[in-house]
Every structure is written in structure tokens, then in C-alpha cells.
Amino acid sequence: AVPAGTTSILFNLTIAGTAGSFGALAVTSASVGSAPSSSTINWSGPGQILANGTTSACDGTRSVKIWVVAGTAGVSSTEAILDVIGYTL
Description:
- By secondary structure, the protein is mainly beta.
- 0% of the residues lie in helices and 57% in strands.
- It has a 3-stranded antiparallel sheet, with no helix packed on it.
């Protein structure tokens, strides 16, 4: 569990079962209101399994949001696993 007072999390984001010719996901604090212009992880074809470790701010409820920031609507998709491995108080 991530304790109260956490301001950011360290995590691994893994994607599997990618579909479409390309796509990208971004992780932000759940309080962010619009999709960011940068990505956390990208894929470039179907059937890929990829991972990336990074950090993100989280909101007061210790929540983050995963955004689809690139891809072709209805064609690009993936499954995502976010594994928290640390946090900042």
C-alpha cells in the first residue's frame, strides 16, 4: 500500500498484447485534466510486450491516470500493468 502523504510513485509500466501499427500511453497524477503531450511508453506494432520504469506525481488520494496519447482510434490498443515499486513522501 502507498501511504498517506505520498506525492509521487516509482513504478514499472508493462504493456502486452499491443494492437495496431503504433500507440503510446502516458501516466500522470489523476488530478491532471487533459492528456499530456509526452508519453511514458510507446509501441510500434502488434503483439509486443514492453516495459518502462519511471516516476509520476500522484494526487491527494495517491491516484494516477493512464492516458492513451497516440494511436489510431479503434485500431490501437493494449493491456497495461502498473506495478508500484516505491514512493516519495
